[in-house]
Amino acid sequence: MTQQSSTGALTEAVYYILLSLQVPRHGYGIMQFVQELSNGRVQLAPGTLYGALSSLVERGWIQALEGTGRKKEYEITEAGRKALRSELNRLEELVRHGHEWTKGLDT
């Protein structure tokens, strides 16, 4: 049995935001990255994005960079990397179990 994360499952928006912040980005850059990475399947509305960014800053998972001009840029913190790694492990486990238990099923 695997160790459970204290963070729980991440929403898809939070997952993609954390993934996008492996390099510093501003809000619009995050929205573009997520849309491109998900082939247009995930589109973050400004209200969703900025609400999530605020929440992630409060959790200590991301931080705003100082002195980046008019557009505020964000970067992931070590705590955010741990949360992202935990979610990747959880998702990999889900996929592995799905493959193991659906072998031989007609799709």
From TrEMBL:
SUPFAM superfamilies: Winged helix' DNA-binding domain. Gene3D superfamilies: Winged helix-like DNA-binding domain superfamily/Winged helix DNA-binding domain. Residues 22-85 form the Transcription regulator PadR N-terminal domain. Pfam families: PadR (PF03551). It comes from the Bacteria. This is Helix-turn-helix transcriptional regulator. It comes from Exiguobacterium profundum.
